[in-house]
Amino acid sequence: MHNTQPWRFSVRGSRISLRADADRRLEAADPTGREMMISCGAALHTLCLALRALEHRPEAVVLPDPDKPHLVADIHLGRPTTLGDDGAARRLFTQVQKRRTHRGGFRDEPVGAPVEVRRAAACSMNDHLRAPPRREWGKVLSSQSLSVRAGATAVRVAAKGAHRSPARPFPPPHRPTTPLPLTQVRNHVLTTPHAFPLEPTPIHVPDEVLDDLRARLALTRPPLDEGNGDWSYGVPDSYLRELVSYWRDGYDWRKAETAINAYEHYQVSVAGVPVHFMRKPGRGPRPIPLILTHGWPWTFWHWSKVIDPLADPAAFGGDPADAFDVIVPSLPGFGFPGPLTGFPDVNFWKVADLWHTLMTETLGYEKYAAGGCDIGGIVSSQLGHKYADELYGIHIGSGLPLDFFNGPRAWDFAHNRPLTDDQPADVRARIIELDHRWASHLAVHMLDGATLAHGLSDSPAGLLAWLLKRWNTWSDNGGDLESVFTKDDLLTHTTIYWVNNSIATSMRYYANANRYPWTPAHDRTPVVQTPVGLTFVTYENPPGIHTADERVQAFKTGPQADWFNHVNVNAHDHGGHFIPWENPDAWVNDLRRTFHGRRP
Questions:
Q1: Domain span at residue 55?
Q2: What is the pLDDT of residues 324-383, one digit of tens each?
Q3: Residues in domain Epoxide hydrolase N-terminal (predicted)?
Q4: Minimal CA–CA distance to 8: which of 359, 272, 312?
């Protein structure tokens, strides 16, 4: 049980909180939660040893809040102190560090027959085992008769009836000459490798899912599509046939999967919602956590070109002081860990609440940064609005106001903007161009997404066509889509949607942003009070704006600027809607500037 590490740490100021993580309890082996709580006691014991080894005198309060039975203990660091002759904690902690349990991957060797027999017996009892709901955790906790004595040589947490192991003589370790200050202890807790509370789970798509995909591709029935070589009616059949053929006979998902798994992947439950995220630990003196959120029709993999330089700037000729601990989740319902059920009202501001819980409770960060584009941009803006005090800032790829999807005609991209005869020709042409670029998906997703999803969820060719139209029209490709997305790129992103059957839930974000409209969490101004950086591209310039400088000035003097505490506004001539993919250097440099001088 202890090897599952069923606990989480979080740090706020000089207080460390230890919480039981019921999602990591082994239900068959620990139906009552008793083993989980004993493991939490062991974690508490080891933490206090570690703090005392750093010459602090921790004070632990067990079960400090009856309304939060999962909150096992609050540990206050206390003042740094010289321990004199009392070196038992340091000696014991030295041995704890030497006696780590195995944290490697699974092995191919089969388990023995006796173990298989016991495992089968446990599985057969599944219907007779019950996991206590959270409201009953208090009963489980009280039954353990936990006893804690804080301020002793080590904090002891024992269950009633447990046998105490005899003390063992350990050689005295090297003793530091001066105690660490509280700020260094806090940073040590959150930046050492052992602080990350989860074990990675690589991405893997079963062979039978890929076999089914190839079988469906082989049965594709194309439509009649004469006179559409210029894409004026949508995706031309000639190009789609080429991609479908390659998807079926040439594309290698396993190769893409290997590249994706070069990063750490995790799957967790946040407020009952399954969440997948990718992580690249920062390499620098004091990396700060950064959560990057994608949009539609993006996947988490659209961030892949910026992850490494953000996490390890020195490897790309940058300053290691700019390092981030990069967290890249999949929007729930957009990809892994699979089809999203039980959350039919998912939208951007509800995801912001999930992300804040993920970062501060699940992962235990005291403060973090956020970035995003498209839907991810307004998720990040909502974080900067509702949780401004717990963010270093945000960096976004659009300046959409948080109420953009409110109102009775949110499906109308033009928002009733008129076309008049007295408009300059270039302004009128740009209005029409942008309407053609954005209007169709917005209206369908808002008004008829479920109807469309019946076809896209059943036909991989249909799914590819719907996504492909946006990737072609929204990217700055100069008429050559594959100069931005190779065939393999296009099919990797599409496969992520297909194997997770996620197109329906991904489109639902639009309708739900209107059905469950955004409302402010406070009335302070600007609405987004955390420091905000923005990256624009001239490919998306509004009517009447022609250059990058004009784009920056138009934002700063326009009504959207009033929404944001903007500290760093940039625009670039290269790149389209998928900025981190199309112009990763610009995105990385802009984001770094946003957080210069804002790190702890």
A1: 2-190
A2: 999 999 999 999 998 999 999 999 999 999 999 999 999 999 999 999 999 999 999 999
A3: 199-302
A4: 359
